[in-house]
Design brief:
10 strands, alpha+beta
Length: 280
Amino acid sequence: MPIAPAHAVKWNRININRVKRIICFTFILICLNVVSKAQSEAVLFKKRELNKGSFSKEDVKQQFARYNFSKLWDKTPNEFIYGFIGSDYQRIRIKFITITKGSSSNSYLVYGKSMVKTNISDFKGTIEITDILKLKSVSKGVDDVHKNEGIKGQFIILGNYTFAEPNNQSHAGVFKGSFKSNFYLDKNDEVHYDDIDQQSDSFTNNEFVGAWNPYNNGLSKRCNWGDYRIPNGGNLDGGAGEFSPVDKYLHFGWQNKRDAFGDDAKAKQANAEEQANWWK
């Protein structure tokens, strides 16, 4: 068998190393591009809300400095909090277990859990309020059911969040992005989760938009969730009156949600699983 000349072996090694560098560089660019898109999505989400003409331009955040908004984020039953992670809209379930006001009037400490498939992870982090804006007009709800309740105003909270999973857990990383929550002020100046228009088809609240970034320098993934609907959910949600995953994505964790529609034995079993306290 003929032996390759030394210079040929050398050039082969150079070419292999060059290919390796190109592959590595390309992978880094892809990762940076994914991270950039996810971060841009969170930034654009907040900017879009700030630019809506339905709010007064004045930031009334200081007016609510003494208030505690913790109850806004644990109001909704977990079976109605929907989320996805990744480009295939894999289902993720998010549960805030404890929420306490931090040392700053606009900071909240959060402990919770996430579940993807059968993998359950803890996370801890913060919610930071950056803006509170007041709607120019107050909704009276469907058929004016809230007309005589003396509601003083409807508001939105905008801010940022960072939730970190322990780095000794498998498939661990950090959730980071922007959020929007809605509340209203009653005639006694008490804060309430804004469910005034909950009967409308497009109702949603507590919208979180951002990304999950793994510790192992793997690929960052889009990760959004919300109450009753998912913000920027693309074509995942095909429901009219309520959230309903389309057929294309059922095998990415959504089949049980589809099975929960109906009143047969299969639906009852699916609903029991949806309502289960999986975080305990």
